[in-house]
Specification:
The structure is a homodimer of 284-residue chains. Chain A is α/β, with parallel strands linked by helices. Chain A has 10 helices and 10 strands.
Amino acid sequence: MQVTGKIDEIRQWTAQARAEGKHIGLVPTMGALHAGHVALIEAARRRCEFVVVSLFVNPTQFGPGEDFDNYPRPFKQDIAICERHGAAVVFAPSPSEMYPRENLTWVSVSGITEHLCGRSRPNHFRGVTTVCTKLFNIVGPDVAFFGQKDAQQAAVIRRMVADLNMPLEIVVCPTVRQGDGLAVSSRNQYLSERQREDATVIYRALQEGRQMIESGATDARQVRARIEAVMGRVPAMQIEYVSLVDPETLEDVERITGAVLIAVAARLGPARLIDNIMVDSGKT
Amino acid sequence: MQVTGKIDEIRQWTAQARAEGKHIGLVPTMGALHAGHVALIEAARRRCEFVVVSLFVNPTQFGPGEDFDNYPRPFKQDIAICERHGAAVVFAPSPSEMYPRENLTWVSVSGITEHLCGRSRPNHFRGVTTVCTKLFNIVGPDVAFFGQKDAQQAAVIRRMVADLNMPLEIVVCPTVRQGDGLAVSSRNQYLSERQREDATVIYRALQEGRQMIESGATDARQVRARIEAVMGRVPAMQIEYVSLVDPETLEDVERITGAVLIAVAARLGPARLIDNIMVDSGKT
């Protein structure tokens, strides 16, 4: 496995792989790799002969007061994980390699970025879409892999790729969970043992929502109230949102029909946690 | 020469050319081709074995009340010109092929889009950068060719390509002028015979500006005043701006040093005309 922080070098390597007829898969990450990322790397290896993992804590997607400085950067450990799971190349650029001058050009998606996390993180998705555009242009992947845990990010990226005719396919892989249901996340390591225990209420609450819908509930407000009540049993949990939305437009639904995405965000001590599940109501 | 309006088809053709080791040159146009476009096609042929000319009057770069509906669309004539000058392919999509759903994703460049034409055409450059991104993603050119007559457009595209690491080179070709100095433009055909005659004052005024600077003038305000005075001899000419700007940032300069771009925009009857020249003051 090769590792570089240089754009010129990664371009040479992917051009070479392309010339050899290999398909190129990209797994864009901020590092601090966990079982969720490993599932993405493995999905990429099943689809593509040449897998690139990028490790880049992208400053432009963090807002003021967010955890950019504290975001974990266990570089050596990340490299070992990429190697163990068969990545061909790790691309780990510095901020100045990615942003060598004042960045004047932004890729932004309106509408679907304004719901859910977009409400509390106003420039977050603009940073994500811009850095993903840069990574796609640098690496030139045939397929890029994202996790369903970041459901809004996945919907936004899909829409960007469609609107701008980007020549690649987006694959979204299922959320990886621990035995007790907690979605794995780099930010889980901010949690104390007690908070880690408390955090499991999020998935239990989502499951109660699922059961209500599968038992016939069609009023989104009632389902939301139940989920909030379950999460509210943990006093330290500060709910940011519990939303039932259309999986594509991410607009709130009132009456539940077809597939619905239940998405939640909450603060627990130092961590902001998000999770979601897709539920098919079976109703038209 | 082949002609298509379909994205899938142009992608197949350029993929084939790429597989044959050909370099792909793109000349993005809105059609109504003239000698300026011909110079771009010829420059593309000197650099690239496979030249694509796109013909697309892009609705998203026109503002309300602008000339989108009236913009000339002499399709057969354009095809003949492309054929005569050795284009391999013409890509002429419909608006619904390029924008099949509500467009939510925009590429925008701040700063350099806000000067000159950006003041009177607030969303124009966002439309240009978005459609160019789409065309680049569809065609996959090694080199794209633009004219210096649209100096601000060229500067904006260059900056976008650099900021987003787009994997292509931008070549800017000199402005093509008629014998009397008027820059060729698709919009010149809006002019009556008398207006066509009056329009030549623009280039004469720019040349007076050049002479002042080459004779040692360093006060941009004085040069601007002279250019405005020369253009003012044509009563029908409504000056929108006369600006002396840094060629890269497009910010106004007060004291002239190094290279300076003199850019003008004016209305003459039904036409909005723009022109510019680059002057090297020889001063540091």
